[in-house]
Design brief:
CATH topology of the largest domain: PTS-regulatory domain, PRD
Structural class: alpha+beta
Order of helices and strands: EEEEEEEHHHHHHHHHHH
Shape: elongated
Helix content: 55-70%
Number of domains: 3
Radius of gyration: 24 Å
Number of helices: 11
Number of strands: 7
Distance between the termini: 52 Å
CATH architecture of the largest domain: Orthogonal Bundle
CATH superfamily of the largest domain: PRD domain
Length: 284
C-alpha cells in the first residue's frame, strides 16, 4: 500500500476500484478496493489516502484501449492482473511500458476464457522464448502460478511463453508484434539449419542458447546497420565449408525478411555458431 502525497480531483470513474484523477495537472489512474464507490467527477480524494497502485498512461490511444479493457474485464480479475503487473515490475526493479496495462490484461482475460473451454493455443516459439528470454520466462511461470491459484485453471507452458513475450515487450518499450516477428524469424532460421544439416538440434543445450543469443543480436545489428569485425573470414570459409554454406543460406533468409544486406562478417560468425551446434549435436 502507498499514500497519495497530494489531493486528487476525480475526472473519471471506471468502476468501484479504479478512478482517473487529476493530480497537479497530471492525469493518473488510482487502484484501490472501493476507491470509486459513490464517486463523481469533481470529487476530491484527500491527500494521505491509501491506495494499492498509481500509474500514468500518457498515450491517448493507450488510454482509450485501457478504458475498453476496463469495460470488458471483470473488476476482480482486472485487480488481479494489476497485482501481477506490480509484481513483475517489482521483481525486475524497473518501470514497464504503459501498454502492458492493456496488452497483458487483455491477453490473460481471453486466455482464461479459452482455457476454461479447453481451448489451448500452441506456441511454436516456446523453446526459443525459454532460451532467449529466460528471466521473463521465470517471471511468467510465477505469474501463471498466481493465476492458477486464483482461477483454478491450469496454465500450460504455451501460455507461459506468451506471458513471457508480453513481459519482454513491456520492459523493452517494444511492441509485441515486432518481438513476435523477430522470434518467428529466429524459429525459421533454426528450422532451415536443421534441414540443411540433416539433424535435430538439442534445444536444451548451452550451444543452442548461445546460437539464439547471437542470432538475436545479429538481427539487431543488421537492422541498425551496426558493423561487426571478423578477422577470420577466410579461415572460417576454408575450415567450416558445410557450416559456412548453411550460414550463407541463413544470411539470405535474413536479407529477405529484414530487407537489409547481411555483411560477410556476420555470415562468418553465424558459420562458427552453426559449426559448434553441428559438432555438439553429432557428439551427443
Amino acid at each position: 500500500m502507498r499514500t497519495i502525497t497530494d489531493s486528487a480531483i476525480v475526472v473519471k470513474v471506471y468502476n468501484n476500484n479504479i478512478v482517473s484523477v487529476d493530480m497537479n495537472g497530471v492525469e493518473r489512474i488510482l487502484f484501490n478496493k472501493g476507491i470509486g464507490f459513490g464517486k463523481r467527477i469533481g470529487d476530491v480524494i484527500q491527500k494521505g489516502t491509501e491506495i494499492e497502485k498509481i500509474f500514468v498512461i500518457e498515450d491517448k490511444d493507450n488510454l482509450r484501449s485501457f478504458e475498453q479493457v476496463v469495460n470488458s474485464v471483470d473488476e476482480e480479475f482486472l485487480s488481479l492482473c494489476e497485482k501481477m503487473i506490480s509484481f513483475i515490475a517489482s521483481e525486475l526493479k524497473e518501470d514497464l511500458d504503459e501498454r502492458i496495462h492493456v496488452a497483458l490484461v487483455d491477453h490473460l482475460n481471453f486466455a482464461v476464457k479459452r482455457l476454461s473451454n479447453q481451448e489451448v493455443i500452441e506456441n511454436p516459439f516456446i523453446m526459443e522464448v525459454k532460451a532467449l528470454y529466460s528471466q521473463e520466462y521465470m517471471l511468467a511461470e510465477k505469474v501463471a502460478q498466481m493465476l492458477q491459484e486464483e482461477t483454478k485453471i491450469t496454465i500450460p507452458d504455451s501460455e507461459i511463453g506468451f506471458i513471457a513475450l508480453h513481459i519482454h515487450s513491456a520492459r523493452n518499450n517494444g511492441r509485441l508484434s515486432t518481438i513476435l516477428r523477430s522470434t518467428q524469424l529466429i524459429n525459421l532460421v533454426i528450422q532451415y539449419t536443421e534441414q540443411q544439416l540433416q539433424l535435430k538440434i538439442d534445444k536444451t543445450s548451452l550451444d543452442y542458447a548461445r546460437f539464439l543469443t547471437h542470432l538475436r543480436f545479429a538481427i539487431k545489428r543488421i537492422l541498425l546497420n551496426i558493423p561487426i569485425t571478423n578477422d577470420f573470414i577466410r579461415q572460417i570459409k576454408s575450415k567450416y565449408k558445410l557450416s559456412y554454406k548453411v550460414a550463407k543460406g541463413v544470411s539470405k533468409i535474413l536479407t529477405e525478411r529484414l530487407e537489409k544486406d547481411v555483411p560477410e562478417s556476420e555470415t562468418a560468425y553465424l558459420a562458427m555458431h552453426i559449426e559448434r551446434l553441428r559438432i555438439a549435436t553429432l557428439e551427443s
